[in-house]
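Morning, I've got a small favour to ask if you have a moment. I've been staring at a protein lately and its backbone has me curious. You're getting the sequence in one-letter code plus the fold written as tokens. I've dropped the whole record in just underneath, so have a look:
=====
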Amino acid sequence: MAFKLPDHTDRAKAAAEARKAALDKFKSAPPPNEEALAARARAAEKRAEREEERKKERAEAAVRAEEARLAKEAEAVVKAEQDRLVAIAREAAAKAARDARYAARKKGR
């Protein structure tokens, strides 16, 4: 005896039987329960409300993060300006000290 591969008609017949079995299974399923459908609808509404709440929370968190970033940026700008002013004051004090030494030397001649 030799092994025989299924030909096209055998495969088509098997596929048709599988489709018929699936259709019979679908047709024999009980109709949906009204209470179950209502419970599903309520669950979907609750899920949608929770998702909407999460979206609001994420948006608020993003706004807070942006405000914090802007505050930190403004603080950095203020600190940089203060550092610049301190450096200018330090340079002015050093220049004044140099000028005083120079004036003292001139006066001593």
User: Anything to note?
Assistant: The helical segments are 8-28, 34-108. The chain has a mean pLDDT of 92. The two ends are 131 Å apart (CA to CA). The CA atoms of residues 17 and 47 lie 40 Å apart.
